[in-house]
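Hi everyone,

Forwarding the result from last night's run.
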Amino acid sequence: MKLKLKIRSILYSISVLAVLGSVSTGCGSGTSNSDSSSDSTNTSGSSDKTLLGAGSTFVYPLFSKQFSEYNTLTGLKINYQSIGSGGGILQLTNKTVDFGDSDAPLTEEQAQNMGMPVLHIPMCSGAVVMSYNLPEVKDTLKLTPDVIANIFLGKITKWNDSKITSINPGVKIPATPILVAHRSDGSGTSNIFTDYLSKVNAEWSSKVGKGTSVNWPTGLGGKGNAGVAGLIKQTPGGIGYVELAYASQNKLSYAKVQNKLGNYIVPNIASTSAASNVKLPADSKIFLGNTDAPNGYPISGFTWALIYKEQAYNKRSAEKAQDLLKLLSWEIHEGQKYCEGLHYAPLSPAAVTIAENILKSATYNGKAIL
């Protein structure tokens, strides 16, 4: 009964924080969600000096900084709702925002629901880290793919399980019960994580699979990266997957993860860059999980800004289309300098070229915008 009351208290605290965050507006602070629109908002009704965006919480710390800097440079205001990739895709489908952002490419069904071709513009890549709350453990834990999968399958339930202690010799690990924290909303971060698990564990692949939303075998759900980070931070024995920036901001411990070549890799800029140093297809849609790179961190992924290829819709002005394309172009060029300070891997020169070509294919009434 005490455990249930404690969990309810944690979930209540996190829900209150989420509500407080959702009503904050503006880009200047770089610390809170920009949320001044709703699902019923029509982009044609917004000011031509304001752009509306929604989606990934994975990329929110970077977007917050970039949009604040861009506002200072140009006076353009960008209101971004950090509501999860699934929410951003839905709002773009409903044409209530100027752009979405997702850490997973659109599925065939999602693309069909859009009704118009959608462009995927890579913004950066980031690491999804295995964060945990074990105050007694001062060493950085090592985790293997099978251990991670079995924790999230609910098969490893205590931290001193032999499968964990055997790969962490000399580390005194308590018998604390494991509490799994996962996303409760449609999430590109979940897609990166479950795609990785599906590649490295046959049981996970057959029983759970991959996607922005899955039927989790165990654990508690938190909304957004912030919600999962909050659950971990407030729960001794907690473990979950969050973007590296959120783990760093919340001062959470995170594990070294064994990659395909057997190396235990610390998630950081260098190891994420190594994982993302791959040849991108012309449409930029690729998964980075379980990289072949010897020094690459194995749970990494790109995040993409999503826009309609034809921008003349819903009575949108040519000026708004120009502003959107100029913003995205700035983000893949000058805006990349803000990536490393916020724990994201900047786009490689080859990836920037791919992103440029994709942006150049955007049109207004059939004519190229850039």
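The radius of gyration is 20 Å.

Cheers,
N.
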